[in-house]
Design a protein that fits this description.
The protein contains 18 helices and seven strands. The protein is of the alpha+beta class. The protein folds into three domains: about 110 residues, no CATH class; about 150 residues; about 230 residues, no CATH class. Helix 1 packs antiparallel against helix 2 and helix 15 packs antiparallel against helix 16.
Length: about 550
Amino acid sequence: MQHIYDKGDRLAEKETFKDKVEKIKKNKRIKDENKNKEILKIINATLASLEKKEDQEKFLKEVKEADQLGTFIGDPLIKFNLIHEKYQQQIEPLYFWFLGFLRDSMKIKTGDIKKLIDTYSASEAAAFHKHMGQNIGAIQDRISNSLITINRLVKQDLFKMIREIGIITDRLEMIYSGDKFGSERPGGPHNAAEIAVKDMYINLVEGGSKAPGSVYGLGSQVGFITLPDLFLHTHIFDKDKVEKIVGGLGGVSTKVKEVLGRKLKAYAIWRFSYKKNLERRRKFMLTYLKQYYNTIQLNIQWMKPYLQQMRRMQMRMDIKETPDILAAIEQTAMEIELLVKLGKEESYNKVVVLNFYFRTSPETEFSQKYQAPTTKFMGRMEITLKSYAFTDAQIKAYELNAQIDDYELLNQIGGDIQAALDSFGAELKVYLEQADKVGSQSSKDAVTEAKTAMRKAGPPGELPLIVEKRAWWHPIEPFVMIPKGFIDIISIFIQLPKFKREKKPLKSELKTQLDDVKSSATGTAWLIYNIFKKSHRMVA
């Protein structure tokens, strides 16, 4: 169960897809033959409500974890199998025959032919195995270097910058609060922010109580006991007014006034320059933070193609463990799968899936022309043609099911890095937004905006506040609903002439469309199967 909070801080429970499936399976009122239909309704409704591709992929993963992805995809309408085995002929022309036939003869656009699977495995004795292993090692080194760079940027530099910006923001907030409060009135509240800034000045600039010449150090001497209290509670923000204000103090000895004026003068000059330096430093650090963040994102984008390439070049252990591959013999096995969209009628797509499985004897030799080893593949090819009538959601589910390992690898690496960035909480997000406003926003407004946003966000790790609409009954609800009812009635009559009902297709029409798509997809699969056999002089 996932927990969320509503307006009344009541703990609510949000069912996951797996929970809904279990509830349907345990519901005795639903017949066994109708349970799959109810599950499919939930999948279709959820996918229709999700707009972002990332959200759809995340939900389809939940469907796969609940063992319902295969049910949602469905079984093929028809399946054709072909076997072509010749150990004196290369197998590449056979694959490209299918590709050329789809593009040239059937006029299928390149964008409608999607490669879902492209993997291989080789025996340990094969020279091809050694050659590919060297290439994989070079790519792994690049990925490792990118991850080390990203780790250094996030863990060391980015963390230090955010921490420094946070310290600067806190100190500027104290200075601005002291300016806003102004001078203290007799018997009134103290300017705590300005006192804190003065205390920081005494400790950091003057050396604190251990320094004899500091405010605290002089306060421990006879005749200057009142100096710390006068210094902390006499607030002068203009350095030119120090002499006038200090000279007008009553009940204070001349010696104390002299020292107090000197200390307040030095503090006013320091405060002005310190404030300006903090403002400049904060703007610089915000711009620098944005640059570092963009560098991290750029490294992630550079790394993703290498991750995909490494994933495709890695050998599939499930193929290597089959009886088709023997460790002591030069052998290679490959699997390629293509999803071909033939067209669409209303809600249904005509789809043919071609799966190629190659079991070959590779011949690797060094090419003088290219100054690199080249490999020729000859042997057995098994082809499976399957036809489907898919909705758009089913096509996405089929693609995800075939490429689930690639999605998980990319999302895991990207998710771990993003989780590290999210651990900074609202600070990183607020500072990145303010980096775009540097130059157009005053430092005071930026500090106020940053602190307000962080207070609203709460501490890192806090559950987000998700408002859930509920039908809570209130005693005055009937009286509120009476005028609303009159408004609804009037709006009905006003909108009645403009009302146009959308005509929905009947169930019989949808069934006819589905039957046509199924017939067309099956006929196309048989056509590809039949023409390939005839063009390669196979028994028809």
